[in-house]
């Protein structure tokens, strides 16, 4: 192995975690942090139990329940029996296997991808896995973070490693400065619109360029979070002063002399000049308008000033058929202005947009306005700490006065595993990450957009251009 | 895990791109603490109407594809969530092999952990196999992992590529964890070195 070859951020983090390289190129890769939740772990713990195995490093593991707990008063318990059994099973498993656990009534409880960074558990240069595809979120701190299946959850619990082959490097550079009203969510929707939902397959994406560097950590996490929607195994952003300042002082982050050593190491992580990427994509930030999806995958996206596209403009028959199917499901007609599309429900939250900055952006639009008649608008903070901070800032009062529902933190209507879901035929403006058929409830129709755009939809009752409201 | 060697069976045509994991198994069916029993919910929204009645036009509700063991689809199969419930649902239904032009990474990985063989073949070949599959019970496909070929009803053999290590595990039905634990001494050494070089690195109990 030649040390002289310039390496990417991904190469560096990968190389430093290879325990052993097998003859065919498969690597035993060391995992620094394993985040565990109630939906994808029960069968993994059961597998350990059957094989008489232990959790190798409980001290590198942390568990929290987030997917199917209610967003109403948790002291009343979980009414749905299957959801309750899943959470109780997690609580039994963490006790039996000695895994650290954040209980539901702890203020630090929240969506696993919000609390990892928030508590300082997710750090630059580490490998982070979780049985959830949006683990890509943590890559915003310069970690190599990716989602795994339950068999791999069991594998990490038992061995603290994974069998992996290296991914290809993709560079996505967003040059220039974002225009008025455009946000991190619009950047990532524009990227997926450009490269498609399989554009990143087999790759780890590194996001770079002036517009990425200018984002705060919340925005960077929004971008990296949706890497998986472009098919990428992970997204990464080189750590910089913004990253270090954000991590410093967080509960689990290094302190004192350890902090200095950590930062010195983290400074070595950014890609070397001349490092090679298999694929490079360049976007101009100034071209990115507030975006909104029209179809049933996140790549089916247009600027809010646009119209519902016409399948007849597609070049091949398979694509035309897919577009027709999406339009039928979404009950949309080609040529309709996106801003004329009326909505029934607004959901602000999720691991994509459930951070304090997102709630501030929504409140800034909602302030002094009212949720449109007939619209139900939910705000679900990403964690108990986000909720607490928002309440200290009075964001909850602004939103409640405008007619939004202020809820307890969890995944909620992003995937409708708890009681928060769309009824068949309902149309939702959502800050979440997936607009797949039935994702927010069977027959529900999802339009993905930014928190500010979601608030604009709530107060106008349609997909509105937030730039006309602020 | 059951080994995968050679399979001859009915193939179901599913000429759709971007079949996401919510389509394979919607989130509301993930509230289980078992791996089995998910087959009845496989492709739930495509398979059943709002009243829970079978949609007669969906391929897996028709004979002979109710007994399909192979699925042939279009691009980016299994995109979306990391839920292993997707391969569990396929397996519980009886599907042991999915053929498509390409797969989402996590789904592809998850298949191997469950004795399901995902086969990547060019779109034009998948379209030919979809035409074969439409012929039903008299037009079975054979998938031979050892020789890395799909055999069409005409006898034509189509070669596919697969990573040798994954092939080895699948052919022998080997458990990944058992494989990795053969490297336990290396993991111990790696941890000791890392502890020495990165003594600043906190754990998850260090608050």
Record the SSE blueprint.
The complex is a heterodimer of chains A (470) and B (207).
Chain A: H1 9-15, E1 18-21, E2 27-30, E3 33-36, H2 42-51, E4 61-64, H3 81-97, E5 101-102, H4 112-118, E6 127-130, E7 144-147, H5 150-159, E8 161-164, E9 168-175, H6 184-195, E10 203-208, H7 210-213, H8 217-225, E11 234-236, H9 241-247, H10 256-266, E12 279-284, E13 291-293, E14 301-303, H11 317-330, E15 345-348, H12 350-353, H13 356-366, E16 376-379, H14 384-393, H15 395-402, E17 405-406, E18 427-430, E19 445-448, H16 451-460
Chain B: E1 6-9, E2 11-14, H1 21-24, H2 44-47, E3 70-73, H3 85-93, E4 97-100, H4 105-112, E5 117-120, H5 123-134, E6 141-144, E7 149-151, E8 157-159, H6 164-172, H7 176-181, H8 184-197
Parallel strand pairs in B: 2-3, 3-4, 4-5
Antiparallel strand pairs in B: 1-6, 6-7, 7-8
Structural overview:
The complex is a heterodimer of chains A (470) and B (207). With 470 residues, chain A is of the alpha/beta class. Chain A is 32% helix and 16% strand. In chain A, α3 links the parallel β4 and β5. In chain A, 61% of the residues are buried. Chain B is an alpha/beta fold. A 4-stranded antiparallel β-sheet of chain B has the order 1-6-7-8. The mean pLDDT of chain B is 96. Chains A and B meet through α2, α3, α5 and α10 of A and α4, α7 and α8 of B.
């Amino acid at each position: 192995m030649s040390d002289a070859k310039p390496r990417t951020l991904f190469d560096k983090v990968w190389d430093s975690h290879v325990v052993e390289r097998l003859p065919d190129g498969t690597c035993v890769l060391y995992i620094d942090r394993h985040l565990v939740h109630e939906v994808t772990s029960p069968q993994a713990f059961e597998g350990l139990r059957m094989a008489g195995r232990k959790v190798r490093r409980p001290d590198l593991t942390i568990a929290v329940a987030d997917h199917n707990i209610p967003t109403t008063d948790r002291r009343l318990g979980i009414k749905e029996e299957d959801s309750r059994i899943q959470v109780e099973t997690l609580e039994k498993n963490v006790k039996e296997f000695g895994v650290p656990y954040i209980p539901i009534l702890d203020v630090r409880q929240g969506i696993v991808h919000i609390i990892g960074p928030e508590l300082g558990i997710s750090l630059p240069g580490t490998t982070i896995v979780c049985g959830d595809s949006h683990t890509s979120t943590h890559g915003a701190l310069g970690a190599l973070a990716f989602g795994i299946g339950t068999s791999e959850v069991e594998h990490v619990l038992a061995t603290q490693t994974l069998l992996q082959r290296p991914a290809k490097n993709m560079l996505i550079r967003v040059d220039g400065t974002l225009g008025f009203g455009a946000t991190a969510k619009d950047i990532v929707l524009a990227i997926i619109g450009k490269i498609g939902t399989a554009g990143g397959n087999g790759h780890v994406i590194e996001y770079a360029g002036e517009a990425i560097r200018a984002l705060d950590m919340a925005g960077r996490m929004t971008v990296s979070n949706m890497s998986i929607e472009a098919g990428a195994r992970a997204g990464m952003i080189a750590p910089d002063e913004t990253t270090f300042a954000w991590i410093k002082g967080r509960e689990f982050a290094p302190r004192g002399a350890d902090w200095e050593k950590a930062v010195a190491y983290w400074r070595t992580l950014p890609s070397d000049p001349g490092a090679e990427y298999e694929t490079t994509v360049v976007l101009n930030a100034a071209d990115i308008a507030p975006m909104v999806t029209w179809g049933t995958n996140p790549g089916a996206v247009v600027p809010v000033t646009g119209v519902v596209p016409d399948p007849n403009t597609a070049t091949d028959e398979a694509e035309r058929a897919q577009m027709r199917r999406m339009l039928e499901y979404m009950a949309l007609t080609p040529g309709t202005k996106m801003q004329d599309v009326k909505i029934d429900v607004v959901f602000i939250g999720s691991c994509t947009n459930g951070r304090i900055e997102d709630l501030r952006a929504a409140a800034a639009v909602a302030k002094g306005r009212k949720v449109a008649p007939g619209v139900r608008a939910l705000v679900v903070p990403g964690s108990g700490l986000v909720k607490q901070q928002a309440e200290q800032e009075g964001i909850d009062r602004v939103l409640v006065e405008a007619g939004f529902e202020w809820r307890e933190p969890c995944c909620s209507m992003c995937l409708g595993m708890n009681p928060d879901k769309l009824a068949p035929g309902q149309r939702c403006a959502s800050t979440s990450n997936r607009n797949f058929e039935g994702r927010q409830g069977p027959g529900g129709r999802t339009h993905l957009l930014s928190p500010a755009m979601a608030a604009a939809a709530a107060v106008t009752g349609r997909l509105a251009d937030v730039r006309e409201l602020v | 895990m059951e080994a995968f060697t050679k399979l001859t069976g009915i193939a179901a045509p599913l000429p759709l791109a971007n079949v996401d994991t919510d389509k394979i198994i919607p989130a509301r069916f993930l509230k289980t603490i078992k791996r089995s029993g998910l087959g009845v919910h496989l492709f739930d929204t495509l398979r059943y109407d709002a009243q829970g009645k079978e949609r007669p036009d969906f391929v897996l509700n028709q004979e002979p594809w109710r007994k399909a063991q192979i699925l042939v689809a279009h691009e980016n199969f299994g995109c979306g969530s990391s839920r292993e419930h997707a391969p569990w649902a396929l397996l519980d239904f009886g599907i042991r092999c999915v053929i498509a032009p390409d797969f989402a990474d996590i789904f592809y990985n998850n298949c191997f952990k469950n004795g399901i063989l995902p086969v990547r073949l060019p779109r034009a070949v998948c379209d030919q196999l979809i035409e074969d599959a439409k012929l039903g019970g008299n037009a079975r496909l054979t998938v031979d992992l050892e020789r890395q070929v799909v055999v069409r009803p005409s006898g034509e053999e189509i070669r596919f590529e697969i990573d040798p290590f994954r092939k080895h595990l699948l052919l022998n039905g080997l458990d990944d964890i058992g494989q990795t634990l053969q490297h336990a001494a290396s993991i111990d050494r790696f941890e000791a070195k890392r502890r020495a070089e990165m003594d600043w690195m906190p754990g998850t109990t260090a608050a």
